[in-house]
Amino acid sequence: MLVLRTYDQVSAALADPDLSVVPPPERDSALGWLRSAVCRFSSGAAHARRRALVEAPLRALSPDALRRRASGRSPETAAVEVLAEALGIAVEPAVVLAAARAYLPPVEPTPADDAAVDSLIAALGGTRDEPTAARACVLLQAAASTAALIRNALPYKDFGTPEAVLTETLRHSPPIPVMRRQHLDGTLVELDLVAANRDPAVFTDPETFDVSRPNNHVHLIFGAGLRPCPGDNHALAIAAGVLEGSPR
Ligand code: HEM
Question: Whose CA is nearest to atom 15 of ligand 1?
């Protein structure tokens, strides 16, 4: 496996059309079906079509309203609760969190993970089609990453405004440490986001948590280039609401 660690290498990889998402191993289960039907693991026309199914409902949500709804919620469940409510999805957060455990490779799924995804699809109406997969995808993509962002930001919550703290947290203590891609020739490529966001060629004194850093917003934690995260503003709004509402 090729590992990319500098900011420039990782940025270039995210924009390189010869690098695609790594196809997950086939699995004859609800999890296997879900992975085969979401934008996250798709390419080309299927990716564009499936991505449009997640972008349209997300565009209709107001970040300010998400932020207000998130205040006072638990860091672990805020994203799932707030997004499910805003999108009109009736599902227990525990069902989403269980299904999220093995959604992203390289976690090796267990039969319990397959059953958890089955329960999530059932809660979404039980139809195995792309609109259902898209609704599951939004909740699963949001769940663990937003919870990790809030968890990583909480120790710094008094260092500045929620926006400033969250931006520097994404750079300094990212909720997603690595991304993976596969080259057309089959080579697996790992993008080390922690190293790239602490590249001294881009960030002065990179180990220091500094909310007044002028360029911390250029972090690469929401992806970039060909398939950036469509929920970045939603994640930030929900995380800001939880930070604001957490005890001093
Ligand atoms: C701190 C929280 C979050 C982080 C750091 C994050 C980061 C990312 C990254 C890096 C990707 C691209 C993965 C790749 O190309 O390999 C991605 C994809 C995605 N994210 Fe997020 N995300 C977060 C929260 C959210 C939220 C709250 C939502 C929904 C409201 C969301 C929805 C998605 C979706 C649907 C994709 C797949 C996009 C595609 O394949 O075209 N994410 N996210």
Answer: 227
